[in-house]
Amino acid sequence: MICKQISLEKHLKLYLQGLRRTPVHPQWLVFLYAHNTVAGFLRQLDGIVLDIGCGNRWIERELSHHCYYVGLDYPGTVALGYQGRPHLFGDGQSLPIKDASVEAVVMLDVLEHIPKPAKALAEAKRVLKPGGTLVIQVPFLYPLHDEPYDFQRWTEHGLNELMQNHGLECQRIESQGAPIETAAALGAIALAKAMLDALTNKRISLLLAPLLISAIPLLNIGGWLLARLTPSSRLMPLSYLVLAKKLQ
Predict the structure, then answer these.
(1) What is the largest CA-CA distance in the chain?
(2) Does the CA dihedral 21-23-29-30 come out positive or negative?
(3) Which of 35, 49, 133, 202 stands 20 to 30 A from 7 (CA)?
(4) What's the pLDDT score for residue 199?
């Protein structure tokens, strides 16, 4: 039954791929921030950029012509439904890269999947040149995913402490998603998961599918609109984006 559900999830991911930038997709609000905010950070980079957990290498398209892109991924991620095209295969906890050889390291939605994140940060620092840049994105309020390889979450303060402990200077930590948007995104994802479970297990609740499907875009659009009509807050973000520098 578990294998059947994983297979079904893979097919649904591929089917919904083209809808990820529309409110019909249950993770629309997640992708909205992930792309728009991260792209702004990426355009500031230059030199050799090492993308750990590169997936389909989408960030390569966002980099300036001053960058030389290197994508690295872990072989096991393909088994989870990701279509990676890395230049290198490797483990973020033991990078096959020389000391002080890259200007920037990017880890987007990767650190929470590494059993020993401290080792991954130590490796990122090792391969960075003095003054090099580290860009990290991690979820905060987000469902368990890619199980059993989902190990931790951090607050803004925890991330700042984590960087300092590894000789990295936190220059910016940006929360992504207003509280209302976070609540709406979690609601949309929960509805999609309920439909998936009903479909997999052939439950009678599958009769509610038309209602649940129509509720997803309403939640997404409603959350987005309400977030713009209410005061901003860092109370419960979807995720955090971190910009840090390797100290000289």
Answers:
(1) 62
(2) negative
(3) 35
(4) 81
Question: What pLDDT is attached to residue 2?
Answer: 47
pLDDT attached to residue 88: 93
pLDDT of residue 201: 78
Predicted confidence at residue 18, as pLDDT, reads 75
- Which ranges of the chain have pLDDT less than 70? 1-16, 76-84
CB 230 within 8 A of CB 179: no
User: How many residues are listed for the chain in this entry?
Assistant: 248
- Peptide bond preceding 148 in cis form (omega within 30 of 0): yes
**Domain assignments of the chain as residue spans, ordered by start:** 27-177+237-246
**CA gyration radius for the chain?**
19
Confidence at residue 146, expressed as pLDDT on a 0 to 100 scale: 87
- CATH code reported for the domain at 27-177+237-246: 3.40.50.150
d(CA 216, CA 154): 27
Closest listed residue to residue 23, CA positions, set 163, 227, 215: 215
* Cβ–Cβ under 8 Å, residues 184 and 29: yes
